[in-house]
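Bug #77: duplicate submission created two jobs. Keeping one. Sequence:
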Amino acid sequence: MQPRITLLTLCVDDLERAVRFYRDGLGLQTPGIVGQQFEHGAVAFFDLASGLRLALWPRASLAHDAQLPVGPRSATEFCVAHNVASREEVDTVLGEAQRAGATIVKPAQATFWGGYAGYFQDPDGHLWEVAFNPELLPQES
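Kept job's structure:
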């Protein structure tokens, strides 16, 4: 297997609400919801850095496609990390997320590994870490 990830899919309970959170609240760019003409096909895509894309897809649609029952949500089984260039940017992003409707679950603070980080949950309970890691600074776009 080639170590390549091109699409990260977050499954959501309310696709329109999730699109509003990521598009209007966090400012991610998307053409909106596509595939609504297909049963279990409605999805929204967001372009991220380095060719990575974020997809939002209804939880029931993934369960249908994978032929698995819809399971309960759990914030502790998966986390998306967003590394930023400064401590101040951590605070800025956490504030943007909160104003967009996220729940701050851990305010930003100094970390044991020499950085600065905090956590929020999006409206579907997905956990995001926003971190300034001086050893892993993001590349300029």
